[in-house]
Amino acid sequence: MARSVGTRADSVYRDRVTLQLPFQPPIEPMLAKLSSELPSEGAGFVYEPKWDGFRALVWKSGDDVYIQSRDLKPLGRYFPELEAELRANLPDRCVLDGEIVIATAGRLDFDALLLRIHPAATRISLLAEQSPSSYVAWDLLALGDDDLRDRPQLERRAALERALAGVKPPIHLTPATRDRAVAADWFDRFEGAGLDGVIAKPEALVYMPGKRMMLKIKHQRTAECVVGGFRWYKGGKGTLIGSLLLGLYDDTGFLHHVGVTSAFTRPKRTELATKLEPLREAARDGHPWADWAEWQDKETEQRRPGATSRWNRGKDLSWEPIRIGLVCEVSFEHLQGTRFRHAAHFKRWRPDKPASECRYDQLAETPAYELQKIFGGP
Prior knowledge:
The protein is α+β, with helices and mostly antiparallel strands. Helices cover 19% and strands 29% of the residues.
């Protein structure tokens, strides 16, 4: 009977299973540092799409499969359907680096991945049937008895293409190019499919666990948002602002909570408290989020600002409304559904911008690129 190593606790795994491979899990993955632009022409880089999923290293040794997360923890129990596919599709003995993704309606769906991190096996099994996951491989760290981590990137890429030449979906080999113009085209076209941008790897780069040796060039855009309220800074209630709650209007005129901006210096937090104080008076009168108290303890599809989060049970998410009218410009990386995927970065106030003009239509994305084309073979 096949053993599913990824379903075991790390301690149990280390005590009972030794994979017939040059090195054992866990190891730290090699990381990337942020860059504002692609490297210059002729700089000697390999370019790949930046996938929006869960980083995952995979060990395969006979019937044993172990999936490791970026933070060195086992992931297999959350993706049982993927373990079975990896066992059936991969070479008999190998170690891969890549990303677990879920595609829904022609684009990557990070929310569907988050739902998988659940304590109930029955819930995970149901989600696995409804939204099966895929694995996109981009590096080969070991094959058979050979440890490939000290080989250059180009050599590892060629070995990866040979090793995965016969794999079938949902296992995929990421596209790669040495042509900067192709990478720039990818950067423009892939955004609509939910990809994060482009990764650039030096051609001679050896695999360096835990080191930021690759470059990531991510999409970043700006938006004018309504400030609908704020949260106090921890320990600074009444004097320090922790975050501003941002809103955008849809076509029906409803103001959605789209995210927060919170990276302020302490002097700026004090300044914001002073600036917002006059706007707090009678702020709930006619406020589009005035019913916040009714969903303080509920999760809602629009993630209204007073709702608790299933990822932060017990965390104080209470907020204070302000009168609608204040507009700020923020930068953001990616729109996930109706909200910003990560916290936005405050850029400046926009006193010239009417709140009513802060709409979703300013966030038009590049049309989705067909994922099946990205999921093509070598």
